[in-house]
């Protein structure tokens, strides 16, 4: 038996995107990385010079811009294509400037409301693996399977380093670690939909596990009767 909706949450760099995409592929499900949606709004704000603390303008922006996530349109290692008002921003949303501002943008309740509405719409059809911070707690509280994927901060910084390096984006490891710790703090201390494991989520610790091992662990949970 496989569930119709799968929620995978966890902190930055825990491997949610990699494992989520592979699990979705294995199960033949749609994969939706909700972090990409918040990143696209953060990028739109940067491009328009909207301050990450300006909740009112951010709320308006989130209602106005169109963020679309779909199958890869270019074969360059991407798992999906992200369009911001028709502009391909798949790689731009992974930049250091977006890393720095996205958690502030994602704190705004009205921004979240706009994103959550779209996310629920996409889940209605079922057979979806949705990855984020609040999927099991807020977006799909009735998801059939919930996983909370986590790892120590140093392990997560190491993975981020490897992932960025593979794309030629070289940043000091210490800077990556501080960025991860700062986002952990902002994401878990915010008032609206903070990062936490749902009471009925299964926590998977991935320190010391290879991608293949973590994937097998997750698939075993997802396909258990
Ligand atoms: O998953 P990723 O690191 O790309 O997410 C970027 C940021 O988007 C997170 O640090 C968090 O602030 C926000 N986010 C969120 N809720 C989600 C997914 C991401 O607040 N469901």
- Give the overall form: globular
The number of distinct structural domains comes to 1
Which hetero compounds are present in the coordinates?
Answer: cytidine-5'-monophosphate
Name of the top-level CATH class? Alpha Beta
Content-based structural category? alpha/beta
Largest sheet, strands/sense/barrel: 5 strands, parallel
Strand content: 15-25%
Provide the CATH topology.
Answer: Rossmann fold
Count every beta strand, where a strand is a DSSP E run of 2 or more residues. Answer: 8
How would you write the strand order of the largest sheet? 2-6-1-7-8
Quickly give the CATH architecture: 3-Layer(aba) Sandwich
Write the element-wise H/E pattern from the N-terminal end onward.
Answer: EHEHHEEEHHEHEHHEH
Q: Counting H and I runs of at least 4 residues, what is the number of helices? A: 9
Fraction of residues in helix: 40-55%
Distance between the termini: 6 Å
Instruction: Output the radius of gyration.
Output: 16 Å
Would you kindly provide a written description of the structure presented here, covering whatever features stand out?
- It is globular, with a radius of gyration of 16 Å.
- Helices cover about 50% and strands about 15% of the residues.
- The strands form 2 sheets. Strands 2-6-1-7-8 form a 5-stranded parallel β-sheet, sandwiched between helices.
- The protein has 9 helices and 8 strands.
- α1 (about 15-25) crosses α9 and α4 (about 95-105) packs parallel to α8.
- The protein has one domain: Rossmann fold, CATH 3.40.50.300.
- With about 220 residues, it is α/β, with parallel strands linked by helices.
- It starts with a strand and ends with a helix.
- The structure holds cytidine-5'-monophosphate (C5P).
- Cytidine-5'-monophosphate binds near residues 35, 39, 103 and 134.
């Amino acid at each position: 038996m496989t569930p119709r909706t799968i929620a995978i949450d966890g902190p930055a760099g825990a491997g949610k995107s990699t494992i989520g995409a592979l699990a979705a592929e294995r199960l033949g499900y749609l994969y939706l990385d909700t972090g990409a949606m918040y990143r696209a709004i953060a990028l739109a704000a940067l491009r328009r010079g909207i301050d990450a603390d300006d909740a009112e303008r951010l709320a308006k922006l989130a209602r106005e811009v169109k963020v679309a996530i779909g199958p890869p349109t270019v074969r360059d290692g991407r798992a999906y294509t992200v369009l911001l008002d028709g502009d391909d921003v798949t790689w731009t949303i992974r930049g250091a400037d977006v890393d720095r501002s996205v958690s502030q943008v994602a704190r705004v309740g009205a921004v979240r409301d706009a994103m959550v509405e779209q996310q629920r719409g996409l889940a209605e059809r079922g057979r979806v693996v949705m990855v984020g911070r609040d999927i099991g707690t807020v977006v799909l509280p009735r998801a059939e399977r919930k996983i909370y994927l986590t790892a120590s901060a140093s392990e997560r910084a190491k993975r981020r380093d490897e992932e960025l390096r593979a794309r030629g984006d070289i940043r000091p490891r210490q800077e990556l670690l501080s960025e991860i710790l700062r986002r952990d703090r902002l994401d878990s201390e915010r008032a609206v939909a903070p990062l936490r494991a749902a009471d009925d989520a299964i926590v998977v610790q991935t320190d010391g596990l290879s991608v293949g091992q973590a994937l097998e662990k997750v698939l075993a949970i997802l396909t258990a009767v």
